Structure formats: C-alpha cells, structure tokens
C-alpha cells in the first residue's frame, strides 16, 4: 500500500479512514496528493467510498482517522466560506424557491460581487451549459438533466479554486454528455481550477483526467495518468475494471527479473511480465489487451509468443473487427483488429494462431 503522503499538494489526504457506524471502515487507507490545477478523477464501483471522500473534503463529513489538508492547512481549521470550493452533488440540490438565475447569483452575492459583473458571469455560465434562456424558471420547471446542468453552472460560476463534482453528467444523453465533458475540462484548465471528479464511467475518466484514482473496497487500487492505467494496470482489479481485458489463469513456473513463465490451466506455457507475482508456484491471472493480439503471421513481431485459438464469433464494427476466440479453455477471449484492406476477416470454426509480445502480457494477482 501507499506510504504516508508527505509532499505538499494543494489537496492532501493523509492516511485517511472513515467509518460511519464505528465498526466497518468504508474508507480504509487513503493517501492522495492533488496538485494545484490538476484534474483528478475518482473512479470505482458503487459503494467503494468515492462520495464519502468528496464529502470529507467538502467538510460535510469528518474523517475518523488521518488528515485532509487544503493549501497546506488541515481542512477542519478552514471555515466553510473560506474554502472556495464549488460543488456538484450526485443529487443536484438547487434552491427550489429561487429561479435559475437567482440560484447562480447566490454564490456571487455571498462573495459581494457587483450587479453587472454578476450578470455577465451568470450569462456565461448558463450559456456554457446551454441553459441561457431558462434563467427565469424555477428548478421544479426543469427536467433532471437540465437541473444537473444548472447545478454544474452554479458550481463554476464563482470560479472557485477547487471544484468537487460527483457524477455531474449522469442524467445527460450521450451527445450532451460528451460536449459537457469537453466544456468542463476546458474551463477547468483555462481557469486553473483544481478538480476532483467522481464517476463510474471509465471512458469519461480516461478522456477527462490528468490522473485517475481507481477505488475499490475503500482503497485506491491504482493512481495513474489514463494511459498508464490502461496500458500498465498493476493488479487484476484495475486490469478488469479499466477497458476490455483478456484473462488467462495459471501458475507461475519460472521467474527471473522481468520475465516469467506461466503454465496455463490447460497445460500450455506462456511468457509474461511479472507484475505482482513474486514466486514459483503462485497462481496468477495473465492479462492481455484485445488490441495487442495479432493473428496475421506477417505482422507478428519477433519474440512474440503464439498460442492456438478457435474463432467463435466475428463482428464487423466498421473501424475495427471484434473477434471472440476460444484460447486455452477461455471462450471469452476478445481480439480487436483495425479494419484495413489486407486484414483477413475470420470465420467461426476457423483454427488460427495468435500471438503477442511478452511485455504486453502481464502476470497479475489471481
Ligand atoms: N451517511 C451514511 N451512513 C452510513 N453509511 C453510509 C453513509 N453514506 C455512505 N455509506 C456507506 O459507505 C459506503 C461507501 O459509500 P459511498 O457513497 O462513498 O460510495 P460511492 O463510491 O460514492 O458509490 P456510488 O458509485 O454508488 O455513488 C457504502 O457502503 C455506503 O452504504
Ligand atoms: Mg457516490
């Protein structure tokens, strides 16, 4: 597990634990340092502790153990109105008795901003979420997705130093969602806002973030930039949770430096890169991404490991071909191939040989 956080990020969680009932820990050991201006996403399954972490950072819940620091100071010592935090919650609570424009004016009035500046900011924020003509309505007169967009505008309108967003785009359709993803990251980067964003949509996490913290069971399983997270998962949970992944199970039979040999459960042997296996005899799940697998002999690189496979299904998807294979007893082995004129379209029942480089094949915990 991670060491205690000693560097001074803008936001720091230092050995934080949280229990609501005094018995079970829903956050077990959280160590996280977020730089000023960074866009960090917390990604993880339902119940893994993401909202709890945001609530502690916002000051609505207190940590059972450990420290949370904002700008070098323990959060408990900073009064809420001085925290400069903008928030969008999972249940976008707008003030029901105020119009949309009044909802947005509120954080600006609290900050004693003059009327003309206020109006310009409100307009800009509402236009950003495509709600420019709704300023006079009340929240009850809007759809769920529209309310969510207003909540987003209200969190950003006063250009806070830190914004916390808990699934802010959950109620939007795909097109609007993608547009808003772009708007949010663009705005955050342009204004230098530090953002802690929560989602369980992994595509959203990969496309928006500087860093992603993958949560499971009250712990960060891996914290990394999107490309590293996808290409170099450090454990089986992360490999399965992020993107599509093939798993072959077996036992480590040899291990030396940066290579190991794995005997798969059907008897075949395979070269892999040992990631979190340490000794001979240990069970392992070997992970290979679908786009790293090649079946065209001419394209196989030197040193590639090959295995026999049977084609079970071939799906034409336009830009790529998605083929399901039986490999070493696994009927759910997926490969993805870019559609190009010289690429063979496989047929169910066909026997082929597939290959990949040992460095693309990661021996992880079983
Ligand atoms: N106020 C509360 N009192 C008691 N238990 C709570 C409370 N809030 C959350 N929990 C529990 O803490 C755990 C973590 O919840 P949390 O809301 O942080 O999860 P999450 O990662 O945000 O999940 P989701 O993706 O479903 O929003 C869950 O088991 C949940 O039931
Ligand atoms: Mg939540």
Compact description:
The protein is of the alpha+beta class and 366 residues long.
* Estimated structural class: alpha+beta
Mean pLDDT: 91
Oligomer: single chain
Topology-level CATH name of the largest domain: Rossmann fold
- Could you state the CATH homologous superfamily of the largest domain? P-loop containing nucleotide triphosphate hydrolases
CATH-derived architecture of the largest domain: 3-Layer(aba) Sandwich
| Ligand types | adenosine-5'-triphosphate, magnesium ion
Query: What's the gyration radius in Å?
Result: 24 Å
Unreliably modeled segments? none
- The DSSP helix count reads 8
- Work out the helicity level: 10-25%
Give the strand content. Answer: 25-35%
Which strand order does the major sheet show? 6-7-8-3-9-10
Largest sheet: 6 strands, mixed
**Overall morphology:** globular
Q: Helix and strand succession?
A: EEEHEEEHHHEHEHEEHHEEEEEEEEE
Description of the structure:
GO terms for molecular function: ABC-type polyamine transporter activity; ATP binding; ATP hydrolysis activity. This is Spermidine/putrescine import ATP-binding protein PotA. It catalyses: ATP + H2O + polyamine-[polyamine-binding protein]Side 1 = ADP + phosphate + polyamineSide 2 + [polyamine-binding protein]Side 1. The structure is a single chain. By secondary structure, this protein is of the alpha+beta class. It folds into 2 domains: 11-231, P-loop containing nucleotide triphosphate hydrolases (Rossmann fold); 244-365, OB fold (Dihydrolipoamide Acetyltransferase, E2P), CATH 2.40.50.140. It is 23% helix and 34% strand. The protein contains 8 helices and 19 strands. A hairpin with a 2-residue loop joins strand 9 and strand 10 (219-224). Helix 2 (100-110) crosses helix 3. The chain starts with 10 loop residues before the first strand and ends with a strand. The structure holds adenosine-5'-triphosphate and magnesium ion. Residues 50-51, 90, 166 line the site of magnesium ion. Magnesium ion binds next to helix 1.
């Amino acid at each position: 597990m991670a060491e205690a956080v000693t560097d001074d990020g803008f936001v720091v969680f230092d050995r934080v634990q949280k229990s609501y009932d005094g018995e079970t820990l829903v956050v077990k050991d959280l160590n996280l340092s977020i730089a000023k201006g960074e866009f960090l996403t917390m990604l993880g399954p339902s119940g893994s502790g993401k909202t709890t972490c945001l609530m502690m950072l916002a000051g609505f819940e207190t940590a059972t153990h450990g420290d949370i620091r904002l700008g070098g100071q323990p959060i408990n010592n900073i009064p809420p109105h001085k925290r400069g935090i903008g928030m969008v919650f999972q249940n976008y609570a707008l003030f029901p008795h105020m119009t949309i424009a009044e909802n947005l004016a509120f954080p600006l009035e609290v900050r004693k901003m003059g009327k003309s500046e206020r109006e310009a900011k409100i307009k800009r924020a509402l236009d950003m979420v495509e709600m420019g003509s709704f300023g006079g309505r009340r929240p009850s007169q809007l759809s769920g997705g529209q309310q969510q967009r207003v909540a987003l505008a209200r969190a950003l309108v006063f250009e806070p130093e830190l914004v916390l967003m808990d699934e802010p785009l959950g109620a939007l359709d795909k097109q609007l969602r993608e547009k808003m993803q772009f708007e949010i990251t663009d705005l955050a980067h342009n204004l230098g806002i530090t953002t802690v964003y929560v989602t369980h949509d992994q595509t959203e996490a990969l496309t928006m973030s500087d860093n992603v913290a993958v949560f499971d069971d009250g712990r960060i399983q891996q914290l990394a930039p999107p490309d590293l997270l996808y290409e170099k998962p450090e454990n089986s949970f992360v490999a399965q949770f992020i993107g599509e992944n093939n798993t072959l199970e077996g036992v480590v039979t040899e291990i030396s430096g940066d290579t190991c040999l794995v005997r798969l459960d059907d008897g075949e042997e395979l070269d892999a890169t040992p990631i979190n296996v340490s000794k001979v005899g240990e069970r392992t799940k070997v992970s290979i991404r679908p786009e790293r697998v090649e079946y065209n002999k001419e394209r196989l690189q030197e040193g590639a490991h090959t295995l026999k496979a049977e084609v079970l299904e071939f799906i034409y998807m336009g830009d790529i071909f998605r083929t399901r294979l039986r490999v070493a007893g696994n009927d759910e082995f997926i490969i993805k191939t870019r559609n190009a004129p010289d690429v063979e379209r496989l047929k169910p029942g066909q026997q082929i040989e597939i290959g990949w480089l040992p460095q693309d094949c990661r021996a992880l915990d079983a």
